[in-house]
Amino acid sequence: MSKHFILLALFLALFSCKDNELIKIACVGDSITFGSGIANREMNAYPKQLQALLGEHYQVKNFGVSGNTLLKKGDRPYWNSDAYQEALAFNPDVVFIKLGTNDSKQQNRVYLETDFETDYKALIQSFKERNSNVRVVLLLPIPSFLKDSTSIWDPVIKNKIIPLTQKVAYETNSELIDLYQLFIDSPNLLPDTIHPSSLGATRIARRIYEAVTQDISDHFNITLDRFVDKQVQNFHGYRQTNFKWNGIDCKIVEPKFVTEERPWVMRARFWGHEPQTDIALLERGFHIAYCDVANLYGAPEAVSRWDAFYEFMTTNGFSKKVILEGMSRGGLMVYNWAEKNPEKVACIYADAPVLEVKSWPKGDGIYKGSPEDWEQLKQVYGLVSDSLVATFQGDPIHKTKSIASAGIPMLHVCGLTDSIVPADENTEPFVRAIQHYGGQVEAIYKENNGHHPHSLKNPTPIVDFILRATNRKINFAVLPAPGSEYRSGAGWKKSKGWWSQMKDIDSLCQATKDIDLLLIGNSITQGWGGNRTFTTHKPGQAAADNYFKDLKWISAGISGDRTEHVLWRIKNGHYNYASPKLVVLTIGVNNFPFNTAQEISAGIIKVVALTKATFPKSKLLLLGPLPTGLDKNSDRRKKYNDIHESIQYLGDEPSVYYYNLEQFFSDDNGNLKEQCYSGDGIHLKSGGYSVWGQFIRERYDELIK
User: Fold this and answer.
1) Where are the domains of the chain?
2) Closest among 654, 652, 623 to 640, alpha carbons compared
3) What's the rounded Cα separation, in Å, for the pair 296 and 640?
4) Does domain 3-212 have CATH number 3.40.50.1110?
5) CA–CA gap between residue 32 and residue 29 (Å, rounded)
6) What digits encode the pLDDT tens for the residues 275-325?
């Protein structure tokens, strides 16, 4: 029986259960699973946050034990814990194993080479003996920023434990989730250098949510048996097959499962270099393919070779739209092929790409040139004279109009100090031209980064771009979820985190009947003050005392809240007990760093629908996010405008009154008024609250007769 069939059978069993049958998820691990160091661990450890995201059809249990090792010979083996026996007795449908961090300690690492692999396989097998269909997912350890080499030591985690865990996954056909890359650029989420904060736990919970809810709806396995010279090897825990196709070196790496669309990536050049994006896509069911076009520089011969390989892949059942990935000179390949085959391309990820051959390899700009590559390029393109070189337009920089017209989403990642393929000779003029012609292109520019290293340490922005382009990105802005923040800087009293804030608001709403005004939102709304007992920073109190002095009102704002948190609060709270005459909804600005304008708009739309259902007798004053971005031409302001353009139609719904307040907070030039806004272009000064308070009061007097 094939591995894909087994996985499909498992998923069908999981997701076809009756409504009263829970899908049981066991979170096995050490202190990071247990939630050590997390304020309000009982509510904020990642298994608890995962439970909140998944909802009532799932039962998630935390079987983490602080200090435990995977190794049986370790100083504190998980094998000896009560939690291990309880996890086995739980008989889970899915088990997430996050062990290995404590095995990096000096006293434990001596057993890594001899025992780690054997012990890990035995642990996996112990769960399979209880349930042969259990889905096993191995979580790679997060990085350690601890400087003590005798304790939890990152070089051991990175160079020993992770490769061994990937080998175990490969040989047991277990799934993998790479938590290491998710945290490698975020030491701020590990306050003690080892354990995630509550927000770090949120990051883990969301990634695991993606894995649990991954759409597995098809049985598929490409057959490569006819290639007698094929070689099979381990690619970071996944099966890689090397084979000759029409005499050309090719490679295909298979994910552990597939989806109905059978997505795939065609990578140009430098196979295996900075593989973090490829690994992240494999986790999500993408195949990664390679057809060698070395030393062809995107010339017609290379394009023809990819034409044929594309037919080979799609004939074998892969998606008709492929993701193209090109590093450095691979940019010539992906763009020349895409320009000829625009209908076949889902999106393009180009990393420090060569787009202008006179920049590289000829060297007419900053780079001194690569004579060998330049001679080879001239040969494959037939540039046999200086006049042909002078008039050459076969590179992507000369095809921007047709590339832009194809409507292909494109993402570039470049170093700003690249002296080999300079961004200002390649990506920057390319991006300007694409945007001029109305194309879809984004660029991530890395400060103090040359041609190397490629990619991003944490590939999430690249992966999210690809997921969005292929309609596979989960929009967390529309999924009700509790907050997990716990910080005094939020204007909260000491030890009073998100859950305390929510309960405080809930108590006020239950204790105060028939109020006039309920203000729902984030820190800006929280700043109104009022009768909240667990908040300290109240810049809007004076304005509230002036404009709301004869009203019964409650501020239901919580610092840091996004649309998903407001959804959770309205759904699980008791705000309707207060029976407000007017609800003021101001939300969305905290979503800006995490979501696109479209995703934020969808979140606001869902909040409005839930608010109307929860308060059927109330009128709703919808403000979306307040104006943001001090400069009217800033990216933040553009996002703000895009959101408001998308949600303004909600004002046509019964009992919903929509307003865009940009004009009230802007000067004659369209920039935000200094007397209203703090330097971050988000939070209001007392003058801003006066403007806002007057507007709310005027609308109240108009709407509530």
Assistant:
1) 3-212, 261-285+296-471, 478-703
2) 623
3) 45
4) yes
5) 7
6) 999 999 999 999 999 999 999 999 999 999 999 999 999 999 999 999 999
